[in-house]
Sequence to fold (579 residues):
Amino acid sequence: MPSGRPFRVREWLEREAVFSWLMLTPPLLFLLAFLGYPFCYGVYLSFVKRNVAQSGTFVGLGNFVTLWNDPIFWQAAWNTFRFTAAATVLKLVGGLAMALVMHQNFRFKGAARALLLLPFIVPTVLSTVAWQWILDPGMGLFNRGLMFFGLVQQGPSWLGNPTLAMVSIILVNTWRGLPFFGITILAGLQTIPADLMESATIDGAGAWARFRHVTLPLLMPVIFVVTTFSIIFTFFDFQLVYVLTGGGPANSTHLMATYAYVISVTSGQMGLGSAAALAMVPVLGVILLLMSSYVRRD
Amino acid sequence: MVGELTWFRRLFGLWIPMAALFVFALFPFAWMAATSLKANAELYDPTSNPLWIKHPSLVHYIGLIRESNFFVWIGNTMLVALVATLISLLFGVMLAYPLARMRFPASGLLALSVGVAYLVPQTLLFVPMADLINRMRLGDSLNAVILTYPTLLVPFCAWLLIGYFKTVPKELEEAALIDGASRWRAMTRVILPLCTPGFLSAGIFAFTLAQNEFLYALLFLNSSSIRTVPVGVTGELIRGDAFYWGQLMAAAFLGSLPVVLIYSFFVRYYVAGLTAGSVKG
Fold:
């Protein structure tokens, strides 16, 4: 019999690494199969020319060259950038204002918070259909309001004019995402110790100085995290545009996500569509890197 | 004098901005409800007040229920969201517990890759995912989305739960181990019960995400009887270029109700989940 203690399963299981890997393996296998594999396959597809019901042929960077020469792809990229930038700034400013207003003592604060979060809870497709009706040129709420107050003779076609359609998708995205910013920044505000504010007041700081030099610097970490999250989800937004405008009129509201979908599904060019979707990753990566380096510099 | 000033400040600093926020956030719901409760004659009468209902009518709700599978879609949505949430919570715990509480090689790398999963666009995944679903012969069944939604939800749940598990002191676990409990017992009897609020937060958050999902449902659920609410509404209630606004708004209103009801019971946990990552850092 070998010397030392016999091997025991129980002791072996008690080792941190063994226990950890036994726990981690099933979810990791699941994620590898349903996230890792599709990702690698998607990357592979972007180097392949493959149409519906055909096997693919390897074309190297051919799909990316095609996209580079495709004016609609550039328009979609520019739209995605404008849409993300405008909606993020609006949500951030509006959310900050919402948080400051709500960071006061008043009755039914919990109920107010719950109600103001509703746009963020309700399924996007359903609220977007409601917005489509609000923006309807003939009988929509917006144009009837404009006509009621005598501001216009005939309301504009919100979703039929390229500029107004872009304004509309930014507005709807802002409406939906603003409460997320507001409630999260409010939670950040509540962590700022009250005595810090009191001592600033005693030192003679006015409301604006307190906001600029005490509140805002302490909120920066929270603002950074919500903004990062929001940029990721706004950048990848699909359903809002798919439902509200379908990318029109004349591609003026196509985002990279909706354009990639159209190439893959409507035109059936899956390789090219995958390339368009993959192109989003480095663009988003650069935006996030720029943001984090800007924040670190401060 | 002081009282008047406070009153003035409350009005302009609190009540007026608050009213503006409420109008901005909630008017689309009022408009949904008002539209859905009017018969077409009143709905499309340009002289009537759009936000007022003169002759309430349930005609659009009756039409919706008679002419579409609306309640089936609601049932499908709830079923899919519930099962996907439970799977995601289970996998989320299995990932988060070791990553938050154990020391072992490669744990940092794993935690990072869970975070990176956010940066993969669904539009890149859906073609390979459709291939995979077809090869597993799950096409056009609810299983197709029950299986794919967790790929969107597990990273969220794991990320939220890692933060939660880290707040429980390590001494609790050590004490249990010294008392002779196995790691498994220490986890299931000591640590996990303390984290119930974290499960509720992650669960309600995952649930709202799952019932909102659109792209995979659009691609994988083709038969009317297995659709979820979002794809049912866009696929069947919007018929060509003709919009049946009364029925659509009835669908939007009814379709929002279940999730709003569930959310109303768990608001506290939802807000905790929403703000957890950003506030704790």
In short: The mean pLDDT of chain A is 89. The beta strands of chain A are 48-49, 57-58. Chain A touches chain B through 92 residues (CB under 8 Å). Chain A has 15 helices and two strands.
